Amino acid sequence: ESSPRKDRSHSESSDTEYDPQFKPIITLPQVEVVTNEENENELLKIRAKLYRFDSVSEPPEWKERGTGELKILRHKENNSVRIVMRRDKTLKVCANHFITPWMELKPSVGSEKAFVYTVLADFADEKPKTECLAIKFGTVDNANLFKRTFEEARKIVETECDLYNGKGDEENEMLLAENKENGSDEGRENRKSSEKNGDEAEVTKKSAN
C-alpha cells in the first residue's frame, strides 16, 4: 500500500507539471485610443496637485481639483502651448488651457513648492471658464522645473505662435487688400469671408486640441 506521504508527493508533482492552455473564444480587435495629443510635443511631464479658487462658495475658498500627471504640450504646426492635467486612476481631465504671453506665475504665500495663476479659458469642463488656479509640487526642484518650462513656453508662444506674433494678422491684411483691388463680387465675398475668418481665428486656434 502506498503511504499518504507518497500520494501527496505524487499529487504535488502532477500539479506542477500540468500546464493547461486555453484559447480565447473571441478575438477582440485592437482599439486605438485618441488622446488629442498626437500633434503635440511634450515639453514637460510632472506630478502635481491642482486647486481652483471657488469665489461663489460662502465663504470663498480653495478646492482641490485633482492629483495626477501634468503635461506642457507644444503644437507641432502652430506652436501654441497648453497645460493638460489628468487625475490619477480615472484619467479625467482636470486642467486644459493654453499658455498666453501675459500669463504670470505668482508664488503661493507660505510655500516654495506652489504657484498661483489665472487663465481666461480653461476647457477641463468642456465649456471654457475663467479660473484662478493653484498648483503644488512634491519638491522645490519640481516646482522650479515647472516654472522654467512655463517661462520658456511663454516665450515660444510670444515669438513663434501666429496668434500672438502678428503673422496671422499680416496674412489677413494682404488678402483683404488683394480682394479690394479686384473690386468684383467675388472679391467682396472673399473679403467678408476673410474678415469673418479673422474674427474666428482666435477662437478656432484656442479650441483646437
From TrEMBL:
InterPro entries to which the protein is assigned, alphabetical: PH-like_dom_sf, Ran_bind_dom, RanBP1-like, RanBP1_RanBD
Coiled coil residues, start to end: none
Pfam families: Ran_BP1
Region feature Disordered, mapped onto this chain: 1-21, 168-209
Feature: compositional bias, Basic and acidic residues: 1-13, 178-209
Segments passing through the bilayer: none
PROSITE patterns: RANBD1
Name assigned to this protein: RanBD1 domain-containing protein
